[in-house]
What does this fold into?
Amino acid sequence: MLIRSVLAAAAACLFASSAALAGPGALRYELRAQPVDASAAAAARGGQVITAEGAPWVRLLFKRLDLQPGVTLRITSLQDGAQQNLTARSARDWRQTSAYFNGASVRVELIGARSGQRNRVEIAQVMVGLVQLESQCGPTDDRVASNAANRARLLDVGCTANMMANGCFITAGHCLSSPSLVDVVEFNVPASNANGTLNHPPPSDQYVPTANRQFTNGGIGNDWGVFTVSPNSETGLTPLQAQGPGLPLATAVPSVGQTVEIIGYGVDTGAANQTQQVHSGAITSVSQANNRLRYKVDTTGGNSGSAVLKDGEVVAIHTHGGCNTDGSGSNSGTLFTHPDFQSGYAAVCNGAPPPSCGDVVKLKASCEAGKLTATLLLADGSHSGQSITMTVDGTAFDVPVSGSKAKLVRKNLATGDHVVRLTEPASCGVKKTVTCP
It folds into this structure.
């Protein structure tokens, strides 16, 4: 999974006449190199403690994580005792990363390991949280705290995701347009710290998105996304089982003047930053021809993807800001009647599977002047909009599928051999060794 060094600060709403992206509340962090082979220590009594001094929260990025059958990697926050228990299967779902943990220190332990087994726990880096910046649309912020069980925070990108009645999720398309940043779905999000740095729920409330997703990032009225997640690694439950019921899609288009409600994880100051808040306001414009809905509802960066509700039903997905400090302007979303959204929603939510080994035709790879290009060819375009995972020398990257191809480009590679593997779908045995001159 591609992890960037520090994501940009949360995008501010633009106080201009033209509408702007509502903006993700991009998660701010730094990566600290911490190469540790914890294999032996994790298997010993008491495990091994990993610490990132001064961190409000941490996440482990593994260089290698090989767990034998019956062995569990247990990660425990020393601040609040939250735990994640990864098996070989759930470790693949989490793609060489851990959940988010509050505090600066975690303990890693191998449970059930026996002498002579080849379990490997190699940590490459630690993701360390930084202070989140504020963005606000409008002269006053009238949002108030809420606790809707079927709304979630989508990280690393910093958006809002909404659990639907059938158990899948909807959000803005621009939130899914960088698959490597679509990492974790968090429910029951706690208050942030006084300086705005995020706190995270325990791993039992964190889920990883699958490659079963479709989206379009095409501007106002053409910005939507649908995806699914894996069952929780701790409870074995799906979000619908743990958080249900989900939201229904509307059956009728709303009218100008009617009231809509938006719940989301927009940026704010202090303890309210990127926690769940709600505000309601009036619809100002409806255009079925352009698949657009406009409304006066307070939102900030991080509200991208929030469901726009009328009488408890989803009438739109919030995608763009356009409010002005003088009270003019309005925010915008994609109407639920958008035909591509409707077909994508049906395909993803009715169990359209992600790519499997049977879909794989060929992996091609080459390297010129330190630039490695790897292209996976699939049998057809039925998985367009989903993603696969490749590793380059053991480092994992989420790669979007476009049509019948998934293309990964890596620059500035050293001279010599580099190994490209297809790891999701798993167990296909597809790899290429490429020599960079």
